Amino acid sequence: MVTGTAYSILLFAVVITLGLMLSKLNFRGVTIGSTWILFVGIVMGHFGFVPNAKVLAFMKDFGLILFVYSIGLQVGPGFLSSFKNGGVKLNLLAVGLVIMSALTAFGIHLVTGESLQTMVGVMSGAVTNTPGLGAAQQTLLDSGGSSTDASRLASAYAVAYPIGVLGVLALLIIFKAVFEVDMDKETREIEAQSNAAENIARRMHCAVTNPAIIGKTIKEVINDDLKNEMVISRIMRNGEEFVPHEDTVLNENDRVLIVTTQKSIDTIRIIFGAEVPMHLEDWIKGRKSVPLVKRLGITNTALTGKKLSEILFKGQYAVTVTRVVRSGVELVAAPDLRVQVGDYLQVVGGKDGIDALAKLVGNKAAALEKPNLFPIFLGIALGVVLGCIPIAVPGIPQPIKLGLAGGPLIVAILISCLGPRMHITTFTTLSANMMIREIGISFFLAAVGLGAGRTFVSSLTAGGWWWILYGAIITIVPILVIGLLGRYVFKLNFFQICGLVAGGTTNPPVLAFAQNAYGSQYVSLNYATVYPLSMFMRVLVAQVMILIAMA
Question: Which domain holds residue 242?
């Protein structure tokens, strides 16, 4: 049998190619996308096309690392605000999903008499949790179990895995129909929730009517508490528009265009006066000299980690920065906001001032087209180290590890969130991130399929048909309950439910399907919100069940 490296790479390439060709198939507009790679791998594995064992293990682990790390980089900038806005609720539901899966598996054990060890394997496959399987096998062997029992766990996992993917995909499609989801409406709703985050920019128009601020400069009005919450972009006075600076004196009935955060709106109304109905056309009519409005891309790596106040020192550029656009999200241009390469500054002012600031920040589009590989490989290295650190849990003889999925995901989120504070340039192009993500999930699915295909049929003929049924029950029942609770009790958005289900079942193929089918970044964001805790709980619960079985 040929099992060399070249043969293994060729086999992976063929499996992925055939899977991607089949991914174009759809039934009434529904497609499972790249998940076809998994099933092509199972078929080819069954017919004896087996790669080298070391290559197989490497492709599976490395593919998973690439996939989850790219997800972490994508969602990192908005992760903290997402966690504040419903993250606790989502994680509680995810924990509920994990516990229900375990209780369902235990209930099947009591009713059918199937060994609890085998049910742990079925459960791990039903929720596509490979680290949970590995932890369960290790705990079994350390507790005196045989290698035959450990192999039986793996076989049960392989048989239940496909239904763990297909079952969840089917449930998401059913949820979409039952909930009568209007994708445009769902998008508007979740964007509104996102825009309610503390640091998201919001425009408002006010008339200066408060006697306490009339005759004072902007610098005197905007104190230290407010300077990071608002920017006065423009003022209209006596029908004429101009760009103010910190020494501009406010007059009665001035119309001010303010960029602020949601939480500061009421405070600003009290300080300045009531909002007034104004539109863009009103400002255009009042222009005596037309101020330029431009977006300048930060490409100067020396500015990474610097505060806006340091870049705009003493207002020397005679422009006003109203917003900072990061990963498509508009942030208030607070003086303490730290910028990074890839950010865009929305500026208002004269041509000379804007040109001078553009020279400082770089504003070279070509520089943003080049992939930045440093944070990727640094993060992967740190993520692997974090994933291998044993975490002792009281009452559990074996330490818990985040694994090669949980560790890189957490590090990617932290690097993309906090990188600028550490003067680390974390920006990489969207196309580069997408390429890494798709290559990663393709490697992972092909490896899982080829690995499962070798024993898939033999496991079925040895009584494994029942494992498919058990796996379907473990997959469907908890997701049905949590999905219905999430929608009708906790009023979750459809994208939140997709992310919750994919992350709570630690299911990368489902995430890939939801992204391709529904095309929303919010699925990934919510997936990343619940994935770390879900992964930890899945691994912990699998080990606890093995210990109960061996007691």
Answer: 198-368
